[in-house]
Amino acid sequence: METRTSFHQREEEQKEERQRSLEMTSRTRKTKFKSSEEEETFTLSELSIAAALALTSEISQDPKVRRETAILELEKRGQKRVRFGNEMEKLEKTVIRNCRLLRVRADRKALRRKALEKARLEKEYIELRSARPPMFWIPLRVHGVWERMEVKLTCTVLASPPPQVTWYKNGIPINFRLAPAGKYRMQNKFGTLTLYISRCSMEDSAEYSVEVKNPYGEAYSFASVLVRQYYGKKSGFDSEIYKRSLIGKEADFAFALKPLFSREKEPFTLSCYFSSDLLEHQRDISWFRDGKLMKDSKHQQIKCWDREASLTVPCAYKEDEGFYTIRVPTLDGYNEQSAYVFVRDAVAAMAGAPGSPLNVKCHDVNKDCLILSWVAPSNSGRSPVFGYYIERCEAGTDDWVPCNDKPVKACRCPIGGLVEGATYQFRVKAVNHTGISHPSKASDPVTMRDPNEDKRVMTILYDDGKKIDISKDELEGKIKIPLPPTNVHASEIREDYVALAWDEPDPRGREPLTYYVEKSIAGSNCWQMVNLDIPVASPRFAVFDLVKGKSYCFRVRSVNKYGVSEPSLPSEPVSPGTKLAPLPPPSQVLAFRDTKTSVVVHWDKVKEEEAIGYYIYCRETGTEEWQTVNNKPVTCDKFTVPGLQTGKEYEFCVKTVSEAGLSESSPKSDPIIVRPAIACPSAPRDFALLSCGKNDMVIGWKPPKHKGGGKILGYFLDQHDDSEEDWHEINIKPIPQRTYKVTNLEKGHSYEFRACAVNMAGVGKMSQPSDLFKCEEWTMPQPGPPYDARCTEVRDTSLMLRWEAPLYTGAGPITGYHIEVCEEGSEEWKQINKQPVSSTHMRVSDLETGKCYIFQVRALNKAGAGPPSVPSDPVVVKTKPGINEIELGVDEDGFIYMAFETPEMCDSSEFIWSKDYEGPPDPDRVRTEDQDNKSKLILKDPSEKDLGTYSVEVTDVDDDISASHTLTQEELDNLLKLSHEIKNPLIKLISGWNIDVLEKGEVRLWLEVEKLSPDAELHLIFNEKELTSTPTHKINFDRANGLIELIIQNFCEDDKGTYTAQLQDGKAKNQFTLALVDDTFDKVAEEAAAKRREWKKKQGPHFIENLQWKVTEDCEVLLTCKAANLRKDTSFEWFFNKKSRSGGQFDPETGTGVLRIKKITKADEGIYRAVVSDDRGEDATDLNLTKERFEDLLKEVCRISALSATPLKIQPTAEGIRLYTEVKHYTDYMKTTWYHKDKPLESGERLKAGSTMDQIWLHILNPTDADKGKYTLELFDGKDSHKLSTDLSGQAFADAMAEHLRLKEAEIAEKYRARVVQGLPDVATIMEDKTLCLTCCISGDPYPEITWFKNEKVIVFKDRYKIEVKGTVVTITIERVCSDDTGKYSIFVKNKYGSETGQVTISVYKHGEEPEALQGK
């Protein structure tokens, strides 16, 4: 033990010396240690030494001392002997040495505490004196590196206190968390700032800066990093450039990626096509979503072929929405394309329900609780979202369990009551007043575990890589009653809950800990247990149901199996948070044009940091409902909204997304029409020499392919002499046309030209130089080339080719044109027309759909054909989607028009109409009206002069938009007819003359036409005389509904004749005639008279419902009727066959009369009448229930009775077996037939069939085995048959036979058993000394045994008691009765079938007494 202690002491001293030699550069001074109780003063150097020792002495030696002491105690326990002499002396020295060592260590701790405190104060003083703003001592410097190398940007800064450091790339702060793992690494050591950039790529070429800031100022330093591509050091045939030339042309994107619209839980595929096969080094294609690399998995399938790459998501969720980027490697780096994928909400289960939430994530995961967060949906449905329901399930199952009963208001909620070690997934549903949304996408699986578990394990390495894991719990020893937790505080304060957190007790002990949480209102000392039922396993707990406006304190107790700790120190007072309000909406929402189907929306971000992102909404101007654009919040301040309709006007608004949900809508943007943004035009092209003189040339060219969304205002033209170096401007002002005569040229010189176009956005790109044109005067006899050949009205099999006549005509006038065509990719030109075309246009037909063609034109004169024109642009023969044709019609004013609606146009676009392709139509015959994207050509005075072909073109658009229509004579005639009808209209008849006879006998004549204006006029003519409205002939004219009616009060012979209604409404007029004569008049007059009589009758009591019968489910017949207009004195009577019948019921309040026939029979056949009467009159209703009608009633009774029949039952009897069914009511009209084994049965000696009022039965007498089988009862109700069956065989027959035999035997026994038939009275009274005779009759076979009893004792017949038996008569005689003979006598008869007892009570009274039976009479 002494050797071990000395070695340990020497090792410790050597370690301290090494530390001092490393930390101190000045001379070392030996320190004199004093007791911890003594006062000590220290110099600055001593304080520095003490601080250095405190910083370097991280491992305490106390555990080692305790371990050595424990070993010593074990050794002492093992030595059971007495120490003497030198041994005791050695032990004393060891004890003194150890005590000294312990005191030294205690003094060292006291010294370290004092040194640290004084060093801290000194440091603060020094820092206060040395405070200064940041200054770069050594700034950043520029770096140039190769790809895949590492860059280290370093600078040195002086500042006090130490500054806050921020690194920037191109002015944007570097977010180390969002960057790829290991991409950036920052270091700040003693004022030296270092930024490491690993594996540099071309994207890392940028300007980097660092900002240092403290309370006294700030400073900046900048440096550029240039990343170069490395091709290797080899040259010649071994160089990388030569190898690249052998590989071939790299594949490029064939088409641009377009936005994709999908829907929740539906698959989508994003495909990218390439111009050629991908080379080997290009097949390592990467897909990114919002900048994050995507990998191939079952949730996202990445495929690549020779010329196509695709990304497929089999089941899309809103989390899959975002910017998708495909990156294709190249030798120079990579090419990439991006597109936004929109994932719309699935169709709601209930209309008006909100969309599903998204981005469900778990935070602060502990043993039994966690915090769940999510993002509110963009679509709130018909009403705002007011809460959320949370569900959970264990991973691998589909059993979702609700976590909350009441909706959670905010998008963040603590979840408790979870099981440690279990793995959970969560999902959320949004709820509004209309319904509940679909569930969100399930969160990632999360396993409940202690987050500090790894920190409590220490790993010790030994023997080249081996390791030992030691838990901190093993080193803490046994702790029974735990210590209280510490640092109880509120980690989250919300409106609905307060989330508490605390630190575990240290030491914690080996036993598992749980916790009890207590709360108290601040200022009081009344503590209440919060989680009495469920102990908390984690140092986290959410407290709900706190009263708003009150402050609470919380404390926690630790619990293990040994007991409960003391409470922790109370937390600071905490009040429930205020209601979490949504953030304000963004401001300054601006919309800018982008393309012909998209708009760019800009807004100002909110200043609050709690904003998660933004939702964008759009709607067409004039509509009410806003449509959601994105279903996943975007964090930027601008967004491109695709999928809009060209030419439509839209408005936009933005909402802020936060934990509290969605904000109010921002102010809507100004309306914007979806059209391409105005940009500078592209370059002109295809220059041609149209004519040439001695010193001048006429140059022509084609317009730019892309006009930039605006009108081309002109062109700037440059020329270049082949013999000179410089280019010279030709014009200062823009040339509006595409031909220009260039003058002042040198004869014989060659010139080339170039041009650029200008529009409202500015000057476009300069074109490529034209070919060299030599300035020599043309003297050839043939004409020059036509120019401006272009294709319009391109459809599936035809197009219109147009061109301009040549400027140089040669030796004579132009006599025609030849058209030549060539397929794209071919050099073979074919002439289309055999005969020359005289005009400058030609319709080319019979082309192959989908093929691409090029056309050129040659002009002809008498000298021959001239040179061809510049070929037209290649054109694909196919009708473009969205292209409309010219619409022919007649407008509301009766004018014939031709209309054309363009699918797209810009602000400067115009509609150019022409007739027969020769120029605008005659303005004296037509006029045009343009509105938005539609143009009308209206014929002023249509005639044969207007026949011909009309065409229209839209200017200032990139693609050709044109159409034509040939107006024929037949079309014109039809249009003129329709125009005449509109200009001279007739009032439309909806319903002709109708005749109605009203309730009081009035006759109503009416007709209906279309709706009329308030100024419409009516003239009603009767027999050539105009009628006016009178009380007896009332005329009603409802112009708004087009209704005309004449109501005649007393229709009579004077009203026979012809009625004509003459109408006029502005220009429109019409007349309608009704002939009310002959049979038509007679029929109406008869009906009117009948109605008048009926009306008069209804002035008194009358029946509104006549007598009718009804059969109830109980087969009762109800005769019902109903009367109206009753009074208290109104009487109601029933009659049957003209005789009054009682038993009927009548309710004066409802007027309902009911006669109930419970069991109907043949006697109920007859005629029934109900009469209602009072002093105003009477009314009667009859019901004939005879013959066929009575049979119909019986049929209905039989039908209901048959339906009420119960299943056949088996009833054993003493005579046999009885089969029966029960019915509600049986009548003879119902025919019944019994079947045995499908054979009909007839009644006989052994089979008896019968019925009662409620039963139908079949009795099988003395059954045998032959009676086994299936029995069926057929009930016929006069219309349908109803069958009931039962199986009398097997066990059923055996049980029935056994019960039959038992009942038969019981009947026999009852018949032949011993009986006392008659004779004995109940009581007999007799006087003393008289003779008593008791006689009774008995029966039984065999003859029964006879026994008499007196007071339950057998009577012995001797002396005064005698018995006499004569056949069935038994007599007992008692002579000279006395009072002893009083009692209860009984006779008991018995044979083998049974027994019976007869009883009599004998009362004997004395002479002179009155019997008890006679007393009281």
User: Can you count the helices?
Assistant: 10
Proportion of β residues?
A: 35-45%
Q: What oligomeric assembly is this protein in?
A: single chain
Q: What is the count of β-strands? A: 97
Largest beta-sheet characterization: 5 strands, mixed
Distance between the termini: 130 Å
Shape annotation: flat
Q: Overview of this structure, please?
A:
There is one protein chain. The strands form 25 sheets. Strands 2-9-8-4-5 form a five-stranded mixed sheet, with no helix packed on it. It has a five-stranded mixed sheet with strand order 10-17-16-12-13, with no helix packed on it. Strands 36, 37, 39, 40 and 41 form a five-stranded antiparallel sheet that branches. The chain contains ten helices and 97 strands. A hairpin with a 6-residue loop joins strand 52 and strand 53 (830-831). Residues 1-8, 21-61, 77-84 and 233-237 have low confidence and may be disordered.
